[in-house]
């Protein structure tokens, strides 16, 4: 058995981002919004909801506000900040975005009832700080296996967790788009955050339900594996969007792909900090 104190652990030193949005085949407007900031390794994806195109307003408010405010904070403080402080900054920025959307929805009649799902990711050295609200998702492809690393805030997920329905029944349910948590619909929102290890070769997919409702996880895995060596990521994003459209394109489709490239290896305990 190898000595764990002498195991070489690869440390990623670079992340590559690509974001894309497509209206799909059934809708003329686009209520999804994406934003990235490569300099501070930040990615944000939102899927808006609400009548009179208000969903588009909510999602754009969320991504613009968080990219601006969290991006500024990361530039100014990230080098000295620990992970708990970054997570606190994420909470504050999302809370402020929530209040801005909620206030707009309650002061402008055509925005009444608007809100948005959210996924926000901050990549640090060997770690991902990931927060989400609603049913937009983040997946990780590692060593040929795809794993969903967010858990939907949705009625279907609650029913699955309670054992009332199976995942297979959920996949064909008519209650797919009923979220139990969203940004902007109440005066406060809870951002669920988790920390994950990041290894060289990892590929992360953030997406709206316009992708995950149209494609089974096995199909997403197959398409990502086919393009895992592709450069740039733009081609893989296009393949995913095209597949979702070919499957019906019933909603707007947004994706952010993030690839962690290889770095140097360092000697250290293999069980810390790269395993949860």
Output the keywords:
alpha+beta; disordered C terminus; 7 helices; globular; five-stranded antiparallel sheet; Phosphatase 2c, domain 1; six-stranded antiparallel sheet; 276 residues
Look at the helices and sheets and give the structural class.
Answer: alpha+beta
Major β-sheet profile:
6 strands, antiparallel
Indicate how many domains the architecture comprises: 1
Class in CATH? Answer: Alpha Beta
Describe the structure.
- The protein has seven helices and 13 strands.
- The longest helix has 25 residues.
- The chain is globular.
- It has 276 residues and is of the alpha+beta class.
- A hairpin with a 2-residue loop joins strand 6 and strand 7.
- The chain has a single domain, classed as Phosphatase 2c, domain 1 (4-Layer Sandwich).
Task: Explain the layout of strands and helices.
Layout: E1 8-10, E2 14-22, E3 32-37, E4 42-49, H1 54-77, H2 83-107, E5 115-116, E6 118-124, E7 127-133, E8 137-142, E9 145-148, H3 155-161, H4 167-171, E10 192-197, E11 203-207, H5 209-212, H6 217-226, H7 234-246, E12 253-261, E13 265-267
Antiparallel strand pairs: 1-13, 2-12, 3-4, 4-5, 4-6, 6-7, 7-10, 8-9, 8-11, 11-12
Helix pairs in contact: 1-2
């Amino acid at each position: 058995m190898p000595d764990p104190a002498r195991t070489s652990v690869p440390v990623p030193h670079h992340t590559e981002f690509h974001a894309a949005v497509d209206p799909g085949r059934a809708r003329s407007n686009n209520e999804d919004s994406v934003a990235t900031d490569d300099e501070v390794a930040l990615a944000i994806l939102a899927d808006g909801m609400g009548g009179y195109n208000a969903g588009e307003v909510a999602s754009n408010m969320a991504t613009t506000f968080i990219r601006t405010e969290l991006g500024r904070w990361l530039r100014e403080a990230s080098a000295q900040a620990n992970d708990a402080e970054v997570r606190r900054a994420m909470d504050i920025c999302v809370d402020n975005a929530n209040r801005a959307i909620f206030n707009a929805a309650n002061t402008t009649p055509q925005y009444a009832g608007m809100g948005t799902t959210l996924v926000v990711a901050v990549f640090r050295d060997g770690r991902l700080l990931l927060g989400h609200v609603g049913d937009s998702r983040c997946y990780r492809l590692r060593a040929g296996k795809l794993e969903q690393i967010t858990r939907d805030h949705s009625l279907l997920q609650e029913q699955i967790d309670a054992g009332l329905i199976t995942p297979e029944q959920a996949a064909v349910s008519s209650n797919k788009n009923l979220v139990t948590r969203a940004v902007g619909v109440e005066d406060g929102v809870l951002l669920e955050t988790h920390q994950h290890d990041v290894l060289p070769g990892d590929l992360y997919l953030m997406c709206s339900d316009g992708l995950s409702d149209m494609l089974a996880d096995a199909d997403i895995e197959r398409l990502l594996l086919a393009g895992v060596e592709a450069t740039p990521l733009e081609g893989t994003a296009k393949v995913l969007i095209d597949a979702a459209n070919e499957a019906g394109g019933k909603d707007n489709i947004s994706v952010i792909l993030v690839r962690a490239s290889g770095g140097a290896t360092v000697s250290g305990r293999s069980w810390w900090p790269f395993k949860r």
